[in-house]
Amino acid sequence: MINSVFVYQNKMLKEIKVSGHANYKKIGEDIVCAAVSTATQVTYNAIEHLKLDHLVDCKVSEGFFSLRVKEENTIILALLDNLEYTLNDLEKQYPKYMKNQKEG
User: Fold this and answer.
1) What is the pLDDT of residues 14-34, one digit of tens each?
2) CA 1 to CA 75: how far, in whole Å?
């Protein structure tokens, strides 16, 4: 199962942590894992492309993604809001394979 945690501080999204594997299908055919990986990577790529990556701390490894906001920025917050929306939408479509939660 993929677990996503959206960490809020003072009603602002400060961190997104995503871990695990969906196990929807075998490796290479798992559309849930592919969708989550794509959503997280596109979000960080956009931050990097806009040269805002110095404002975040991002860690990526096999089955793990974490992005923490070091300095508030409206573009970064909008991208993270979109990522949260996307992951929540995927959870609605694949509730047996994803679990999202909010903290703070």
Assistant:
1) 999 999 999 999 888 999 999
2) 30
